[in-house]
Automatic annotation (TrEMBL), chains A, B:
This is methylmalonyl-CoA epimerase. It catalyses: (R)-methylmalonyl-CoA = (S)-methylmalonyl-CoA. It comes from the Bacteria. Belongs to the methylmalonyl-CoA epimerase family. Residues 4-134 form the VOC domain. It holds the Pfam family Glyoxalase_4. PROSITE patterns: VOC (PS51819). One of its GO terms (molecular function) is metal ion binding. Its EC number is 5.1.99.1. InterPro entries: Glyas_Bleomycin-R_OHBP_Dase (IPR029068), MeMalonyl-CoA_epimerase (IPR017515), MMCE/EMCE_epimerase (IPR051785), VOC_core (IPR037523). It is an enzyme of class 5 (isomerase). It comes from Aureimonas fodinaquatilis. The lineage of its organism: Bacteria, Pseudomonadati, Pseudomonadota, Alphaproteobacteria, Hyphomicrobiales. CDD domains: MMCE.
């Protein structure tokens, strides 16, 4: 079912500091920042040869990563995202096997414009798993 | 400096359950398990098309992931590993820029037989970062 690791998302308290760390300290290529108000984050992509790291800062009062950053003041790995070919089929299969999809259970449009959903961390080894449909 | 994302390591309380989850629930290819007493873990590799996930269970009384699992009973993402071409050069550059290398500061032989070192999570957005020299 799962294909490529699409990205690893790291929640950070300050995006500019995080960019400096990855660009200047670790020598990686980092994109310009994008604000995604509908997702409650401002983010950049760290482009690695085989995948990317997303650095996300909370945006707005209802940011879904605000609570995470209250617990993890310096930041931390927030989720990992695996690609699937057909998110409706994958979702139905996972639910049939007992996994829980967060929210209303339906895919929504993700940060890259593709359908995504999140799986309950308690069902996946304490890790928040995003599935993204990449055709 | 950093190249490919070599792996994401997830600490798990029970390796067989974790294998079943990735193999049967998520439909991924999972290797046979390996015991690495010198690293205090027993692990499998989940082979994705572009990188791999390591699922690690504590092995022995001094396992370096035991404390992590005491705090995170269901498991959780323990570290991410980036590849570098020359670990001695990378290490010297990072230390010169103020980053802290864990342990005695010297690379040691990692789980794949290559030189590795770990960087202090407090210096890297709350994430434990492993660097692995891949020639």
């Amino acid at each position: 079912m799962i294909g490529r690791l699409n990205h690893v998302a790291i929640a950070v308290p300050n995006l500019e500091s995080a960019v400096a760390l990855y660009r200047d300290m670790l020598g990686a290529e980092v994109s310009d920042s994008q604000s995604l108000p509908e997702h409650g984050v401002r983010l950049v992509f760290v482009d690695l040869p085989n995948t990317r790291i997303e650095l996300m800062e909370p945006l707005g009062e209802k940011s879904p990563i605000a609570a995470f950053l209250e617990k993890n003041g310096r930041g931390g790995i927030h989720h990992i995202c695996y690609e699937v070919k057909d998110i409706a089929i994958s979702s139905a299969e996972l639910v049939a096997k007992g996994a829980r999809v967060l929210g209303d259970g339906k895919p929504r449009k993700g940060a890259h414009g593709n359908p995504v959903l999140f799986l309950h961390p308690a069902d996946f080894l304490g890790t928040l798993v995003e599935l993204e449909e990449v055709g």
